[in-house]
TrEMBL record:
Keywords: Cell inner membrane, Cell membrane, Membrane, Transmembrane, Transmembrane helix, Transport. The chain crosses the membrane at residues 15-38, 50-68, 89-110, 130-155. It is found in: Cell inner membrane. Pfam families: DctQ (PF04290). The keyword Cytoplasm does not apply. Its main location: membrane. It is a multi-pass membrane protein. The keyword Cell inner membrane applies. Belongs to the TRAP transporter small permease family. Residues 26-154 form the Tripartite ATP-independent periplasmic transporters DctQ component domain. This is TRAP-type C4-dicarboxylate transport system permease small subunit. It comes from the Bacteria.
Length: 166
């Protein structure tokens, strides 16, 4: 199981690099759009659409990475009051419930992709299934990282206090 965690963490490092590139490209596209519209008076019709689609992918990749690092927003009122083993069991149950929700997200996202596959985007003239593919891809990434968190929780022997090195 530790080997699987190493593979997932290496994959996440690659995703982190990809996320940085996507956010960089999105920023450059937005800057070019602002310059072309307000300085040169010539708006680029495709730039807003591309930025929107890149944002959609970056949200799902970022959410998957945040899930793996357990940095998603959470209400931990109950879990903070529990000792180590009950807290660990609670987090495992929460991640299993999350996996079921990600499965629903995958199925619904795939159905939406199928429904819009014949439509073309207004400015870029690409199949709308490409932007909508971010939903099932994101669901897969979230599921992989939820599994990694579960494995890590199962392998945890004792609680690591803040500031200590495991």
């Amino acid at each position: 199981m530790a080997g699987l965690l190493r593979i997932i963490d290496f994959f996440n490092k690659c995703l982190m690099i990809l996320l940085g590139v996507v956010l960089g490209v999105m920023s450059i596209v937005i800057i070019i759009q602002v310059l072309s519209r307000y300085i040169f008076g010539f708006p680029l019709p495709w730039s807003e659409e591309l930025a929107r689609y890149l944002m959609s992918y970056s949200i799902f990749v970022g959410a998957a990475l945040a899930l793996r690092n357990q940095q998603l927003i959470a209400v931990e009122f109950i879990s903070e009051r529990l000792s180590f083993n009950p807290r660990r069991i609670l987090k495992i149950v929460i991640n299993i419930i999350g996996i079921f929700l990600f499965a629903i997200l995958f199925i619904q996202g795939f159905e939406m992709m199928d429904k819009v596959s014949s439509q073309l985007s207004a400015a870029m003239q690409i199949s709308m299934s490409i932007p909508y593919a971010s939903i099932p891809i994101g669901a897969i990434l979230l599921t992989i990282n939820a599994i990694a968190v579960i494995i890590e929780l199962v392998l945890a022997k004792e609680e690591v206090k803040e500031g200590e090195v495991a």
